Amino acid sequence: MFKLFIISSFLGSISILLQAPWNLFYLIFLIFPGLYLALDHGIKFKSFPKNFLSTIIILGGFFYFYFLFGFSWIVSAFDYRSEMEIFKYLTLFGLPFLMLIFIIPSFIIPTIFWDKKINKVLSLALCISIGEFIRGNIFTGFSWNNFSHAFVVNDSLMQIFSVTGQYLATFLLVLTAQFIIFLWKKNDIFFALTLFLILPSIFLYGLTRIKDNQFDTDNIVGVVQPNISQSEKLEGNNENKIIFDLIELSSKEYADLLIWPESTVPVLLQYNSDIIESIFEELPDKTELLIGNITYSGNKFQNSALLLDQTNKIKDVYHKIHLVPFGEYIPLKELLSNFAFLKTVTGEIGFEKGLEVNSISTNIGTARVVICYEIIFPEEINPKKDKLDFLINITNDAWFGKSSGPYQHFTATRFRAVEQGLPAFRSANTGISGIIDPYGRVINKINLDVSGAIFSPLPKKIKETYYSKVGDLLFFGIIIITLLIMFFIKKKKKYE
To answer: Where does CATH 3.60.110.10 sit in the chain?
Structure first.
């Protein structure tokens, strides 16, 4: 069993190479067949408890090391203050363990249904996709680096998200990757071919779906990336220089709508109308500005997106709904706030979440603004099914330096565009910023750790996608149907 643990841990460790910035898609044909074979050697006992323990050891090793290497970029956020060193190690080793604990219930599926080859293949795919759904939704959720994000390697493959979303796409990915196991037996060739054809079918669907972009040439959007370091913002008394640099970048071309990143200006703009006025004095007439800023009301701070216009007033506002636990607030505050070291991260007060998801009405259309890691939660992009024209993601990824985190964050934005059939504009303080079409293709971008601004006519949205209409209902339906099929096969085997 120790050998199987080592093998599965190794497979989990290299699985991060499926994600950005590496995108080594071909590794799926090593990772998931290898995991299948490890389980096939481990689930061999007559009792459920022994088999379940084997499954936990094998899949536990796989997922722990996948999470360990996949989430390691987070520790960069603790480098800016020496007293936060303890959080580095708590997060590095504790977060993967926490995610593992959450998904262990999904390990029951292969434990129960590991009998006939079709059940084995289905149960592994079901286990991994359900596990992703659980960790993406339980408590606050953390839907980062799902295996389906490997589809970003090709624009056509990405289009399956318009139907399936990320969880069902993972199910299909794991299914097709296992075909290689059955190539060597003559009796299994048809089964192997059936599994293999999933991938070219996904590709052909995407190939036929993608069309040339249509643009609203009367409306120009500008995305600004100032590349301001965390130390520069935290030093204080730099607001004039920061604002000057932002205006200089914004003035390179005309834009009907300018987008500045999360927490761009280190002052509360709601109480500094003179600063808003000074900004618009330097911008063209009729230009609107979407900017990330902290707001304060009733002894509550909120992480917000403000829409400003030439009246020097806040025209519209969105308050972040999905806060980062232990980064923006303390969960179970009444209990955990007594631990002084936790306040090192959030401060004495922390942030309060917004009360509802609301769209932002600009002069060029209606937008859903998502702040920072809200973009990784597909179900939160448009819960009200509003008639949106585009998505905006503002973020401050300066916390994470030149790690893999900003690349993976950018990838998530591309998938949300595909799911909704909407163009997306991403403004990140230090990168990666970009303009993305409704097929998830990058029209233009600003690379990591450079300053700049990009401008584009507004890409037109496309026909409403299936996923935007039904969300993950199809995924739930496939789960139920698959479980029924596996149950029937298992019952039939029992009576053979």
So the answer is: 215-321+356-461
Query: Radius of gyration (Cα) for the chain, nearest Å?
Result: 24
Query: Which amino acid type is present at position 191?
Result: F
At residue 104, what are phi and psi to the nearest 5 degrees?
-55, -35
Nearest to 424 by CA among 70, 4, 43, 434: 434
**pLDDT for position 84:** 65
Pure H helices in 316-398:
333-336, 343-346
Distance of CA 63 to the CA centre of its chain: 18
Task: Give the pLDDT score at 266.
Answer: 84
Cβ neighbors of 313 (< 8 A, separation 6 or more) are 273, 276
- CATH of region 215-321+356-461: 3.60.110.10
Beta strands in 239-299 (DSSP E): 257-259, 288-297
What are the pLDDT digits (tens) for 275-286? 999 999 999 888
Using one digit for the tens of pLDDT, what is the confidence trace for 318-334?
999 988 887 777 665 55
User: C-alpha angle with apex 426: 424 to 430, nearest 5 degrees?
Assistant: 165
Q: Which amino acid belongs to residue 364?
A: I
Tell me how crowded residue 183 is: count the other CB atoms within 10 A of its CB.
Answer: 13
Which residues make Cβ contacts (< 8 Å) with residue 319, sequence separation at least 6? Answer: 295, 302, 303, 304, 353, 354, 355
